[in-house]
């Protein structure tokens, strides 16, 4: 009897073990995380970080136009041994917003670097410091206040606005030009809206032509028509290539000075614009030896045509 039951017991044992195995596999499958059922890698990205809004105008710096002197081959001559000063690329550094900073203005005027100074017409120290600049042979410009695109930025007293009549624009511009002693040219203060308007620019440039002044386009907008209109009117003109102190630290300004030197080497000449600021003063003082070795700093009148 026991011999007959043995095969059945073995069969039942096998079936029982098989059932346990199947149950175990199903349990493991149900406990597996959903992500492991699909062979896919999911990359989670963190939240997008948005920087703080800037509280100062951000000036776009469009790519430089074609070289102004295609035949000029001395752009790299500044680093050749024995190269004379006349062979060095030329750089003009304009210090804008002069007339409001007596101490900084005086210290910048005292630098033996052939800087060009652009004075705001209605600033309290403009007449005095423009006289000092003239006595020490610096180029002097009128920093003509013009309407900015963002109405939050106030160009200051004597500003030219597109809403003004041509007669009022001419009157304001003439007064501004007369308030800066010994000026030989003009560049725009702000003006990202005004300089895009050709008829409005023509009114101002006509006064410059009468006085024999040149015009430097500060290029506060890549759509400025100032330099193009000046050329059409037969006025000597040039344009800013590098803003030196959008970030007001000595390190950043020295970096921008390096970009200015690089632009001068590439194009033979370049114009940079900075402002009366402690960081600018420190950068010019600390970086001047490196700068002077590679370029010749000239008054901006030498770079307009």
From TrEMBL:
Composition bias, Low complexity: 52-61
Single GO biological process annotation from the record: carbohydrate metabolic process
Regions of compositional bias (Basic and acidic residues) in chain numbering: 27-42
Disordered, as annotated region: 27-86
InterPro entries to which the protein is assigned, alphabetical: Divergent_DAC, Glyco_hydro/deAcase_b/a-brl
Name of the protein in its database record: Periplasmic protein YibQ, distant homology with nucleoside diphosphatase and polysaccharide deacetylase
SUPFAM superfamilies, per the entry: Glycoside hydrolase/deacetylase
Pfam families from the UniProt entry: Polysacc_deac_2
CDD domains recorded: CE4_DAC2
